[in-house]
Backbone:
């Protein structure tokens, strides 16, 4: 493995305000731990969090399950997020709540369900991580995944500093040390990410004390991290329901999903508008 370390701290302009949920659909109990969201051919795609089946669920515009796609030669240790490019879906199996995982990976799956191309695995490690002892305050816990240019970016959560560190990973199958490219001071714990190449817009979902949830927009995002980004944060008015994924519609509208929590009784697919 080739070890590369590059660190840059990003100073961001931040503003907090509240907006509204425009649409709200319950999801099946089968996907009560929804933890990622994509859109392909006008269908939503989601998956469960840790311990679920290695399956992608294709949903209607109102969140009804239309198709299940089991990912061959894959396991779901802790699937946290999903992204895509023109040809492939990338599934981030890199949840690491206790710091002890040594098998972090991203599954690379053809978008075409009839493709004869085999699924591939991108394995990676954090070069800064020296200890794999159980630690509930680990900073090596991936939560978000985006595709940008010819690379993938993993977003970690930091429970103490309330920042997210960005790690670059190749799209080619193999074993890698992820390359740290920067830090975003989101002042919260990141739970999901999405990037729209046409809009040059990065969006993150996050929480502070798992009682309130937020959506943060970062305009004109690029891999040139030595710049100041325009970052705005909006409260998502849904109470204690845990927001886990986001998908950009345009500059003002976003789809989000939340897990099944005691106060909500079911997982949800929601349209959030600024």
Residues:
């Amino acid at each position: 493995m080739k070890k590369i370390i590059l660190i840059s701290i990003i100073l961001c302009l931040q503003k907090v305000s509240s907006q509204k949920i425009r649409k709200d659909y319950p999801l099946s109990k089968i996907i009560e731990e929804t933890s990622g969201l994509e859109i392909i051919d006008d269908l939503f795609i989601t998956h469960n969090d840790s311990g679920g089946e290695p399956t992608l669920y294709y949903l209607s515009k109102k969140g009804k399950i239309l198709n299940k796609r089991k990912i061959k030669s894959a396991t779901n240790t802790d699937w946290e997020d999903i992204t895509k490019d023109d040809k492939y879906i990338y599934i981030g199996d890199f949840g690491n709540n206790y710091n002890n995982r040594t098998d972090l990976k991203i599954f690379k799956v053809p978008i075409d369900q009839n493709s004869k191309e085999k699924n591939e695995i991108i394995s990676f490690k954090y070069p800064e991580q020296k200890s794999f002892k159980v630690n509930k305050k680990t900073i090596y816990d991936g939560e978000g995944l985006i595709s940008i240019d010819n690379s993938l970016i993993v977003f970690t959560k930091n429970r103490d500093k309330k920042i997210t560190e960005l790690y670059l990973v190749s799209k080619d199958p193999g074993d890698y040390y992820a390359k740290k490219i920067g830090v975003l001071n989101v002042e919260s714990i990141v739970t999901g990410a999405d990037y729209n190449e046409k809009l040059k817009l990065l969006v993150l979902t996050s929480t502070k004390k798992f009682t309130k949830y937020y959506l943060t927009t970062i305009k004109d995002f690029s891999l040139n991290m030595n710049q100041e980004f325009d970052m705005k944060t909006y409260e998502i008015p849904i109470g204690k329901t845990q927001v886990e994924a986001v998908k950009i519609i345009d500059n003002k509208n976003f789809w989000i999903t939340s897990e099944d929590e005691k106060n909500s009784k079911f997982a949800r697919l929601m349209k959030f508008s600024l």
